[in-house]
Design a protein that fits this description.
With 97 residues, the protein is mostly helical. Helices cover 87% and strands 0% of the residues. It is built from two helices and no strands. α1 (2-40) runs antiparallel to α2 (52-96).
């Protein structure tokens, strides 16, 4: 009976992780949109369509934003792995003493 409950727990954790991922991506998208809109599009709209300069600015802004987001994610993952290794080393040292 306990084994039957375990997959449900795993599914619940998986669903939570998926929901958090969606929330984080949605937040990143909203921040990116607001930031690039503020930087690339004047507050007074002169035309219903984006101008060439605005389009180029938005493309570059989004590319930079996503690049920085990816770099930060990689760095945070690296720190997390280093922290895990450090904790394992400390636990190993404590068990030896």
């Amino acid at each position: 009976m306990a084994a039957a409950g375990l997959p449900q727990l795993d599914n619940a954790k998986l669903q939570l992780v998926q929901e958090l991922e969606i929330e984080m991506m949605s937040d990143m998208y909203n921040r990116m949109t607001a930031s690039c809109h503020r930087k690339c599009i004047p507050p007074k709209y002169l035309d219903a369509e984006l101008g060439k300069g605005e389009s180029v600015c938005l493309d570059r802004c989004i590319a930079k934003y996503l690049d920085v987001h990816e770099r930060i994610g990689k760095k945070l993952t690296q720190f997390s792995v280093q922290d895990e290794d450090f904790v394992k080393k400390l636990q190993g040292d404590q068990q030896k003493n």
